[in-house]
């Protein structure tokens, strides 16, 4: 088997030309396409990673906002409870003051009534004493004597201890 050298050289040249032609027509465009596709995929992966980081940051912000909202709501509830307690305390204090004022007015009114009753009692006792005295002595008194006897009796009653009526 003899190898024809011309044939071998021609086939070698054809093979090299075919490789060059394939390199130029197929390999370079395919390689460029593959490089572009790889760059696009890498860009999409990087974009997805950035989006994932942004989503994670957003999730953390939302969690923090939710926590802040819960704390703020708890503070509002605590403040509302404190205000309610203050209002309740104030209303109770006002009610106590009003009750004390009513008691004091009632005591003053009772004291005035007691003094009025005492004055009326002294007047009645004075009149009865004079009437009794005039009947006992069986003499009739003129109006001046009558008023003087009433005044004397009232003076004597004032010296009595008021504690007997209370």
Q: How does this model look, in words?
A:
With 166 residues, the chain is mainly α. It has one domain (45-164). The protein has helices spanning 5-137, 143-159. The radius of gyration is 61 Å and the shape is rod-shaped.
Properties at a glance:
166 residues, mainly alpha, 2 helices, rod-shaped
Short recap of the structure:
The chain contains 2 helices and no strands. With 166 residues, the chain is mainly alpha-helical.
* Portion of residues within helices: over 70%
Biggest sheet layout: none
H/I helix tally:
2
Unreliable stretches: none
Number of domains: 1
Rg estimate, integer Å: 61 Å
Determine the strand fraction and express it as a percent band: under 5%
Order of helices and strands: HH
Q: On the 0-100 scale, what is the average pLDDT?
A: 85
What is the number of beta strands? 0
What would you call the structural class? Answer: mainly alpha
Rounded to the nearest angstrom, the distance between the terminal CA atoms is 159 Å
Overall geometric form? rod-shaped
SSE diagram, text form:
Layout: H1 5-137, H2 143-159
Helix pairs in contact: 1-2
